[in-house]
Amino acid sequence: MQARIFLGIATFLVLATVAYGVTSAEEAGTTMLLLAGGMALIVGGYLMVQARSHADAGDPDRPGEGGAGDPAAQGEAYLPHASIWPFGVGMGLVVMANGLALGLWALIPGALLSASSLWGYARQSRRRD
Question: Among residues 114, 106, 109, 110, which one has the least CA distance to residue 85?
Fold first, then answer.
């Protein structure tokens, strides 16, 4: 179902790209519409492949079917702990993006904050308390 929605969006955007490109002769908008259609096509294709693989495997992620993804079959579900690290990654990326416009004085600290927060988040997620 979700794959058809995204594939429909991709089809609409490609048709809109053709109509916009012919009527406006403007390159930037035509390119952006085409890229948006391509991204929707990628997501729709991925969802279609996932739906087919789950249908072939008997959909093990549905509860009660006893597959590998069934929390009842595993005994428990893994849920990550609350963490500040994703906030640090996001703030580092914001500072880094501003550094692209402002200069190295903001780019380097943003990159360091993002990298250290990503490292901390990866370390935390490996520990299962």
Answer: 114
Whether the pTM exceeds 0.70: the reply is: no
Full residue range of the structural domain in which residue 45 is found = 2-59
- Residue-wise pLDDT for 39-58, tens only, equals 999 999 999 998 888 777 66
Check: CB of residue 7 under 8 Å from CB of residue 48: yes
Does 78 map to a domain? no
Start-end of H helices in the chain: 2-24, 27-56, 71-74, 85-102, 104-126
Question: Distance between CA 75 and CA 93 in Å, rounded?
Answer: 38
Q: At 26, is the secondary structure helix, strand, or coil?
A: coil
